Amino acid sequence: MTLQEYSMRKETHFNHTRLSHGICISNKCNNWLNVNATKDLKLEVEGCLNDTFWNEYKLRTRLNEDPICSDGDAMKLEPADIAAAVVFICLILLNLIGNLYDFFIVKNNDEANRYLLCFSIKRNWIRLTEAPGNNAEPQSKCLRGLNGLKAITILLVIVEHSPLTFVVALDNPYAFEKMFDNLLYHILLDGAVAVQTFFILSGCLLAYQLQKSSEKENLSWKMIPKLILYRYLRLTPTYTIVLIFTMTWIRFSGSGPFWQKTIRPEVRDCRRYGWINLIYINNYYDNTQCMAHTWYLAADMQLYILGVFTLVLAKTDYARKVALSLLFLVTFSLPAFHTYFQNLHAHIILAPE
Predict the structure, then answer these.
(1) Which residues of 203-242 are buried (b: 16+ CB within 10 A; e: fewer)?
(2) Which residue range or ranges hold the Acyltransferase domain (predicted)?
């Protein structure tokens, strides 16, 4: 079986016709570069590799991409890095001031500047970890089980993503390909369906909150912009800080050619397409590698908007039954048509490439 035939099984095999090859240029190709200096690194490395592979294996090679070097060129400070550093320092100072204000001035007094207390780690930790007390509404107590469900799902997501860092550079690609024949391994590898739990929880909590709001005031279309704005303001500030860090300082967090190969496209695409992340439509763009994991935030925001429109405008029980039934049929049929006409796989497959 030829390399081309073996590599055609893209779902479970690497493309073995293209190799990621690392060499020490100053050691392996120094003599060749001094004699055949062309000032074009790609041509020089290709010529050096051709000589080496021909002498040892009688094979010819061709570089499909520009060589990635760990020579420090990508580590130069840029104006955007300095601007981002100023933003981060301001946030750190606000957190420092907020904590000093809470610990030494306000202490346990709730009558204080609430804007400074927003940056208090102690108060945020208490709010994050507190469970509904004895005075909480019975309905709120019934929702405590959702915290356990979220914790289990988060654990599964972490376990599913943790092996990805080891796939960047494999000693034995064939051993990794054989894992696809193990049924138990697919529970981990194709476990992206677990993320659906978060969508279900988000929809249930949205319906619960709107149901509670309807007991105090009538739901009207005027509430829709306000609800969407609150959701946007809740997610976007933290999201923006992470995006700014990815556009600037993340490339200083590691070194080496594999780091540059992984991070350089993400930094480039975040600088070019970062704006589509901030309006939550990045999950519809295939040509960007900017924070690919944030597809969930975009999908969650879109489903939230759809849910708000449905639950607010469909006021009666009958209208909601009709609307939810139609949405149920659409969500079942649309993926089927999309999968068929685009010739896609029926479920997410994390192929080796």
Answers:
(1) beebeeebeeeeeeeebeeeebeebeeebbeebbeebeee
(2) 145-343
Per residue in 147-178, pLDDT (tens digit) is 888 888 888 888 777 777 777 777 788 888 88
256 sits in the region (left: phi over 0; alpha: psi -120 to 50; else beta) called left
pTM: 0.81
Give yes or no for residue 224 having a pLDDT over 60.
yes
Nearest Cα neighbor of 302 from 219, 235, 220 is 235
Give CA torsion, residues 45, 51, 56, 60, to 10 deg.
80
Question: What's the Rg (C-alpha) of the chain?
Answer: 27
Distance (Å, whole) CA 287 – CA 232: 25
**Is-contact 290 270, C-beta < 8 A?**
yes
Amino acid at 43: L
CB of 124 within 8 A of CB of 158? no
